[in-house]
Amino acid sequence: MERDEKRRFFRTNCDLPATLFLQSEDFMKRPVTIFNLSGSGCAVRFQSTELIAGDETHQLSFELPNRPQPMEFDCALVSAMDDGQDGQELRLQFIKPRGGLQDAIVTYVQNRKRYESTAFKVAIPVAIEAQGGLRAGQAYKGTTLEVGKDYALCELGALGLTSSSEVIATFQAPHFRDELFFPSIITKVERNGRGGYFVRVLLNNPGDQMLEFVRHHYSDKAKAMQITPAR
Questions:
Q1: Which of 5, 139, 205, 228 could bridge across to 127 with cysteines, CB 3.0–4.6 Å?
Q2: pTM
Q3: Which residues pair with 16 in a beta bridge?
């Protein structure tokens, strides 16, 4: 079996919401959850005992962390099994999936821990700008050492602020293609022994924006990690 062919059958357990369009009809859409996924098909939980036609082509739509746009696959029912909880486990096989979509699944399967991680070691250009006091508007620049859903640990060359200072933290994409900024609070400041500072900032209401920013712009450079507890 060729290498690319083998990649299609790599699979992973997961928990992804999806929509199943029975017989590919919009008015017959059913919510399901993908619990096992590969480049050639998937297994889904369907909270219904409704009979699924095995001789029809259905359509499955879902999103992946590495490809937030909805992906749609024609699929065929391979098997249906009672899950013992008034629902079913359906095994679906993708029918002639487009190469780009199939590649996105394989990439997700092979790197799931990275895409689902809530923290990364990654160097992102960052500017910390004071929001009040004598240094209001002053920006201190450096790079991140790690980022999480609601925090960033940065290394700055200079800093005229202290813990509890309110700031705007701005993160830059490669080649200035994009930027992301959050109102933030400095929670920790330490000297780094090289004339600069380690600075930890708490991001205000970031949702998943910080993680999606890393996945989109720095997926080839970011290393998934466990969250470092604040001290």
A1: 139
A2: 0.55
A3: 34
> Scanning the structure block, which residue is given the tokens 């297994």?
43
Q: What would the pLDDT profile of 162-210 be if each residue is shown by its tens digit?
A: 999 999 999 999 987 799 999 999 999 999 999 999 999 999 977 778 9
Residue 76 Cα to chain centre, angstroms: 28
DSSP string for residues in 185-212: EEEEEEE-SSS-EEEEEEESS-TTHHHH
Q: What is the largest CA-CA distance in the chain?
A: 73
The pLDDT-based confidence of 98 (bands split at 50, 70, 90) is: confident
What letters, b where the CB count within 10 A reaches 16 and e where it falls short, cover 167-191? bbbbbbbeeeeeebebebbbbebee
Q: Alpha carbon 139 to chain centroid distance?
A: 29
- Return the half-sphere exposure (C-beta side, CA atoms, 13 A cut-off) of residue 169: 31
The residues facing 190 across adjacent strands are 198
Q: CB 220: neighbour CB atoms within 10 A?
A: 6
